[in-house]
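SAMPLE LOG
Freezer: B-3
Tube label: C17
Construct: single chain, 279 aa
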Amino acid sequence: MTAILLALGTALCYGVSNFIGPFLARELPTMTVIVAGQSVALLVSALVVVLHGSPAPELDEVGAGLLAGAGNAGGLALFYAAAESGPLSIVTPIGATGAIVPVLIGIGTGDNLSALSAAGIVLAIGGVALAARRAGGSVEEAADLRRTVILSALSAVCFGVFLWGISPASASGVFWGVMFSRLSLLTLLFAGALLTQQAFRVPAADVPKVALPGVLLFGGTLLYAAATQEGLLSVVSVIATLFPVVTVTLALLLLHERLSRVQWAGVGAALTGVVLLSV
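STRUCTURE (predicted):
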């Protein structure tokens, strides 16, 4: 029961973060929203590492952490960009299909493809295709939907790199993995902000609000790590992947997003595919 509650906490943290972040980015600079929370994650993980005094990770673990952070940086930036042009009820399920990437990498390195994973890949890809369909609408709306789907799919690939890299990066402890991944993530985001001349200024009163999405992601990661220690990975991972349901529900209730029946079928297929990939 403890593992299930922790995994549900992960899904809730991730789902709420994926809703709040793009919502805040409509009023504040996107980079500010992303960087604020991730900076908190870096500081907390670094503090825990220092206080705990655990042995330093191997060089390959550090490299995996930096790679995971690069994937996370790209995934977040693309996810927020997709959310600017399309509904979260489409963006989030497509972004969650990044679970395909670790599976494909595993196959490429000698793992066997299970029947459930194969079905999950087919459903996830089919779901993306259906979610991209829109009945009627103007040419501009169709172009926005295509842009949303493409950006969401690219964010899924980047998030998949993060999912693949964070496991070996955490071999010496989850906080080591989180610290190096956030260090890489923030370095790349700052570099991107400098190149695009984006400002990071935000009123002091808004700092807690802006940091909330990143803090929720960090909390979800810690809850997931704890859940894997309390219960079966096959159960915990499936429950944790239900986070898009939280985001979609919030988008429907609070933003009144509407999808066609075909798009709903696509969202459902993508979510089912993600769950099967986690089994």
